[in-house]
Each structure stands twice: as C-alpha cells, then as structure tokens.
Amino acid sequence: MNSNHLNKQQTGGYKRRDFLRNTSIALGGLAISPLLLNALSGCGNPDQKNQEKQADQAPQPAKLTRKLGQFDVYPVGLGCMNAAWGYGKPMSVQDAANLFRGAADQGITLFDTAEVYGPFLSEVMVGEALSTIRKDIIIASKFGFDIGSDGKIKGLNSRPEHIRKVVESSLKRLKTDYIDLLYQHRVDPRIPIEDVAGTVKDLISEGKVRSFGLSEAGAATIRRAHAVQPLAALQNEYSVWSRDPEGEVVDVCEELGITLVPWSPLGKGFLTGTISPSAKFKEGDRRSTMPRFTKEAMENNWAVVELLKKIADKHSAKIGQVALAWLLARKPFIIPIPGTTNPEHLTENIESAKIELTTADMKDIADAYSKIKILGERGAPDVMSLLDIGAKGGTSSKGGHGLSVPKG
C-alpha cells in the first residue's frame, strides 16, 4: 500500500468544522451464535422530546457521496452479514461473491462485515468478491467476541492481545493487508475503552488499520474512546421504528464529527412491507426469537409500514426505499448499511440514495409515527444486556463512564 496514501488517512475522525463543510451528502448489524442470538437488537419508542426536536428539521438533500472519516463513499453501504448468517441457510461463497461484486459494479463503495458473521464466513465472501478491486472499495470489519473452536460465541473479548489476533486472521480472510475501518463490535465492560482505542491506534500506525469505530456505544464511551483515537464511525441500530440513537448518540456524533452508520436500517426486513404479520420464520432465522417479530407485535407495528407506503406512493418508490431515504434525510453524516441476498433488492437499496424526501414528507412521517406505540423490544434480554449505557433506549450515560470499566 502507498505509504503517502496511508499517512493521509491515519486519523480516524476529523474536525467538526471540516466534517460539516465536507459532508454535503449521505454505514451492523451484529451476528451472534445461539448463546447470544439476539445480541444485536434494541428497544421501543424514542424519547418524545428528541422526536419533537428533530421532526421539523428540513431534510438533507440527496447527494451521491458522503464522508466516512477520511473516505468518500456512496450514501448507502452494503451489510454483508445476511449472506452468511442470521436469516437461514447461508449463500455459497461464490453466489455471495457475485452479489457483492455486483454491488460494487453498481456504485457501492462501503462493505461491512465482521469475524463473528458466520462466524468467519462473511469475511471470506468479501475477500473472494473484492480482492481484485481492493483499492476502489472500503472494507469495514469488527472484533470483540470470544469465538470458540466450535464456532460458538463464549462472550465478549476486547483484550489488546485478542484484538491483534483477530485483525491478523481477518486480514487473511479478507485477502488484504489493511482494514479501512475497524469497529469494536460491542463494548467490553472488563476492558477500559482507552486500552481498546490505544490498541487500534497502534494498529493504525502499523498500517494494518486505517480508521476506528465503535458499535452500540453510548455518548460517554464514545467520548472516552475518541480522546485516545478519533472515531471515524459509530454503528448503532437506527431506523424508522428503532429510534434509540436519538437519545444521545446522534448529537454526540454531530458534535465530534463522527459518521453514524445505522445497521438494520430496514428493520430486519419489516420496513420493506414484504413481511406479512402472519409470517412464520424458519429455523436459523434470528427473527423467530425477537419480541418485535411475534404475530401480535407485527400486527400492531404494521402501522409503520402503512405510513411509509403513503410516502412511497407519492414518490413512485418502494416502501423500503423510503425507509432508507428517511435516514439519509435526517443528517448528512448518516450512511445506512442494509443487507440483502437478493440482487433486485440490492438495486432498490442503491437507488434509494436518489430519492429526495421533502420537508412535508418528513413531517408527515413524524406526525404519523408519534401516534404509534411500537410493540416489542428490538432484541431479547440477553442481547439487550450487551448494549452500552446510552445506546439502549431509555438509558443515559450523562455523568457516567458507560459500561467500560474506568481506566486505572
């Protein structure tokens, strides 16, 4: 890799004034074994005050690149988990590689994966698909889980020596000598976040990593990490029906110039309108264990799909495209990363970046949503327990230090 190019990219974040000036346009999900199967889900309706605060803001105009740290990327990325885990039988490596390469051919530049997806399989798929066009794309991956030899998750592990071990293995699977964006997948309560950030900082100086991010972190943890190694991105679940980041995360990202990369921006498929409230989920589909995907909850929450459909009809668009366009219109530093195994849906997701919602559209969505009470948390209790203070709806890290044990 060109050393001058690497040095130019060494800082994971950038100053707020540069962020606001340069970001003239518009990225988890997490996968886990049965032990922590739902570790990636979150909870109910957002704080009403935060909703009202943002409801009347004018939408951001649609542009075809957005800032991700020092990188310019397409406003919609591709989550590469679905191909390997979480929604039934995984795709073959070749079929997934064809899908991912097709995404690149259509303009996608950000590809999001993690060692835990599969586990390991998603990274293999990404490496197979993109190694020959490596310089043209941005790869994000993650560490943070202790994966046993049997492939099962034993818990969290962000010890510095483990981070280094994971990175070396990920580089081999990805067929690359550097990872553009390396996330801590979940905050490890046992390890000071300063030690985590310091380890990634060292990896950046060694040229193995180019920027740093966190996932499902709250404001206190974000500030602590950012003080050691500037954060390029934060990957938390955020969508029309999962508003947890509006509690404190959106504001701290804007303040510090951090890109917010919503995982599951289509509500695990529900916000596309293609999942009937009477749907039955197959074995291996993690939605079968989620409170928000019971029949009762889906019947109640279908009102969200209906409100999106009204806007979609106005724009001659798909329901899911409006769900993505809503995120892009919220803030210029938001880059959603929907996942899919369907080439047609992939193209629809890509095209959503070209849909411009009006101020009236955004207000209509806000007004209609304020009358809906979402039923069911976005994850089971064991999953919710892994979310940082301030990342989970109804919690605040103000005045605290987050889940991560204080340094010293």
Describe it for me?
The protein contains 14 helices and eleven strands. The protein has helices spanning about 5-10, 15-20, 50-55, 95-105, 120-130, 160-175, 195-205, 220-230, 250-255, 295-315, 320-330, 345-350, 360-370, 380-385, and strands at about 65-70, 70-75, 80, 110, 140-145, 145, 155, 180-185, 210-215, 230-235, 260. By secondary structure, it is of the alpha/beta class. Strand 10 (about 230-235), helix 9 (about 250-255) and strand 11 form a beta-alpha-beta unit. Strands 3-4-5-8-9-10-11 form a seven-stranded parallel β-sheet, with helices on one face. The chain has a single domain (about 5-385), classed as NADP-dependent oxidoreductase domain (TIM Barrel, Alpha-Beta Barrel), CATH 3.20.20.
Write a compact overview of the structure shown:
This protein is α/β, with parallel strands linked by helices and 408 residues long. It contains 14 helices and eleven strands.
CATH fold annotation: TIM Barrel
User: Could you state the order of secondary-structure elements as H and E?
Assistant: HHHEEEHEHEEEHEHEHEHEHHHHH
Largest sheet: 7 strands, parallel
Compute the number of structural domains. 1
- The CATH class designation is Alpha Beta
Provide the spatial order of strands within the biggest beta sheet. Answer: 3-4-5-8-9-10-11
For the record, the CATH architecture stands as Alpha-Beta Barrel
